[in-house]
Amino acid sequence: MTSPNPEPIRTLIADDQEAVRRSVRRILDAQPDITVVGEAADGVAALELAAELRPDVALVDIRMPRMDGLELTRRLAAPGAVTPVRVVVLTTFDLDEYVYPALRHGASGFLLKRSGPALLAEAVRAAAGGESLISPSVTVRLLRHMAAPRRMDRRSAPAAPLTEREVEIAGQVAAGRTNADIAAELFISPGTVKTHVASIQRKLGVQNRVGIAVHAWEMGYAVPPAQ
Fold first, then answer.
1. Those residues with Cβ within 8 angstroms of residue 206's Cβ, 6 or more apart along the chain or in another chain
2. What DSSP character marks residue 66?
3. Which one-letter DSSP state was computed for residue 86?
4. Whether the Cβ atoms of residue 75 and residue 103 lie closer than 8 Å to each other
5. Phi and psi (nearest 5°) for 134?
6. pLDDT tens series, the chain, 227 aa
7. Looking at 27-103, which runs of residues are DSSP E strands?
8. How far is CA 119 from CA 28, 90, 98, 142, 198, in A?
9. CA angle 192, 195, 196 (to 5 degrees)
């Protein structure tokens, strides 16, 4: 018996530029497994639409009127959010100073606005699946740049200490490696890696792999990404 097709990923676009919203909508609506359910030109409107439409994923611009993307991300993706939505941050600049706190507020990743259609769709799918888009060529480089000055900030220390194995795996996550990659590197099963990753998230109080990566860069035990 053939299983029914899964429901498409319901996506909200929040950006103050109509041309950007139109372009992103065109890309996403062309995907068979993604549908755009709403658009907002500012953060307040996006928050209201999120409560009304209950999207799976929100693509959020950093700089918007009335409520910026950082605050919107906090309200949608931080622990205890009234309307929990997985957020992918969109930014114009490679080193946008707002990306780092957005990730700390629970964003599932971020993209540069010049990223191609394939990466945009991949980011939405990753967020909807509870994963994060962490690519060695983009995300890890930005995390390393922004976290380096903060590595000695002990406020980042977890409530419960990580085990040696968990530190090792967190460092691999920060390099953008998948569970399968880490399993092969450490000679353990992908299921064991998944269990460790879940434990690390609980101890750090983070929502996803991006949060693990940020912590690893802050504390100085991230593994350099492969070139």
1. 106, 212, 214, 215
2. S
3. E
4. no
5. -125, 100
6. 444 567 999 999 999 999 999 999 999 999 999 999 999 999 999 999 999 999 999 999 988 999 999 999 999 998 788 888 999 988 876 555 666 677 778 888 778 787 788 888 988 998 888 777 654 445 555 555 655 545 445 455 666 889 999 999 999 888 778 888 899 999 999 899 999 999 998 898 887 777 788 788 878 887 766 54
7. 34-40, 57-61, 86-91
8. 11, 12, 21, 17, 25
9. 90
Whole-angstrom distance, CA of residue 117 vs CA of residue 97: 24
Tokens 């085990």 label which residue?
163
d(CA 119, CA 101): 22
Q: Distance between the two ends of the chain, CA-based, in angstroms?
A: 45
List the structure tokens of 106. Answer: 């629970």
